[in-house]
């Protein structure tokens, strides 16, 4: 897999409806994963979207989630730029440069879904998410 760069949208509880709408607009394949599917099945947000991804026939990729518990939703700043792929050296290099002189919200480390993931805001105020999946080779 090559690395990809795409928008990542945040929602205040209606990510499922939004992503289903975008699928109607753009077509394509939609995958939705809930917080409940990742160990939070007894929580009030179990059916909310932890991660959703729409991949369209035209090559568009749109990702989204509901605001995680403990984080505040803020309309107008409810986006991030997502970098993802399986080239660990390349993506770690991007992370180092993006997080330098910025703010790290989630350190780049292994997560409950098995990938290495981190969130930071660069020195210009742009929020980034980096996800490194295991290489298929």
From TrEMBL:
Gene3D superfamilies per the UniProt record, alphabetical: 2,3-Dihydroxybiphenyl 1,2-Dioxygenase, domain 1
Stored InterPro entries: Glyas_Bleomycin-R_OHBP_Dase, Glyas_Fos-R_dOase_dom, PhnB-like
Domain Glyoxalase/fosfomycin resistance/dioxygenase: 5-130
Name used for this protein in its record: VOC family protein
Organism whose genome encodes this protein: Streptomyces lancefieldiae
């Amino acid at each position: 897999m090559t690395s990809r760069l795409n928008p990542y949208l945040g929602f205040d509880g209606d990510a499922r409806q939004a992503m289903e709408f975008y699928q109607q607009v753009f077509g394509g394949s939609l995958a939705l994963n809930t917080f409940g599917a990742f160990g939070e099945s007894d929580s009030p947000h179990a059916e909310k979207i932890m991660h959703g991804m729409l991949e369209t026939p035209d090559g568009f990729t749109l990702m989204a989630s509901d605001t995680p518990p403990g984080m505040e939703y803020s309309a107008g700043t409810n986006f991030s730029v997502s970098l993802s792929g399986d080239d660990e050296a390349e993506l770690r290099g991007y992370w180092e440069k993006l997080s330098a002189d910025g703010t790290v919200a989630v350190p780049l480390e292994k997560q409950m879904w098995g990938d290495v993931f981190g969130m930071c805001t660069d020195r210009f105020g742009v929020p980034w998410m980096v996800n490194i999946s295991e290489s298929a080779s």
